[in-house]
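Aim 2 progress update. The chain analyzed this quarter is reproduced below.
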Amino acid sequence: MKATLDSVFKVILGIDLDGLSRTYEEGARFTDAFDKANAITSFRYADFFWKIKRFLNIGSEAELRKNIKVVDEFVYKLIKGKIEQLNTPPVDLQPGKKEDILSRFLELKETDPKYLRDIVLNFMIAGKDTTATTVSWFFYLLCKHPDIQEKIAKEIIEATQVSSNSSIEELAARVNEETLDKMQYLHAALSETLRLYPAVPVVSTMHKQR
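Predicted structure tokens:
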């Protein structure tokens, strides 16, 4: 879950959340608040009094509101920083270098902070748990089927042209659209994982609070 959140955050905001090592203290507080808010929202299915708690701002709903405040403050701060960064780009920054999703929305002149916050959180909610769950099942199935694991490893090596003693950084550097297009067996294995273990049997998300 932490690794997936780091990846999703990088794609959306172009920022290293560093959730695995937790060296980014403010990012760690955000991650904890985000996870707690999702857990509390999911528990509403079993809590028949959550609307009363929300109205009175007590119990789990008071905790939810507190966590959402932490999430909002962190995301708003990052959005503000991204806007300032794009308004004063480095001299050597070339057009088309803005790869993160938020930057692309800003290039379309979308500047409403609340709208941008909703975009960021919706992408995070859609991408974090679904990806983490699918990857977890995928690794589980690879362990159950070592012959498939070998075929996938061979395909990745052939597509990226890495050697047996290459580092993970060297492998990652060679993964791009061209090499991914060559990994058809990997794509099929991931698709089969999704067929066997769908990532979203039930949708329960924090944005229901909003």
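The chain is about 70% helix and 0% strand. The chain has one domain: 2-209. These observations will guide the mutagenesis experiments scheduled for the next reporting period.
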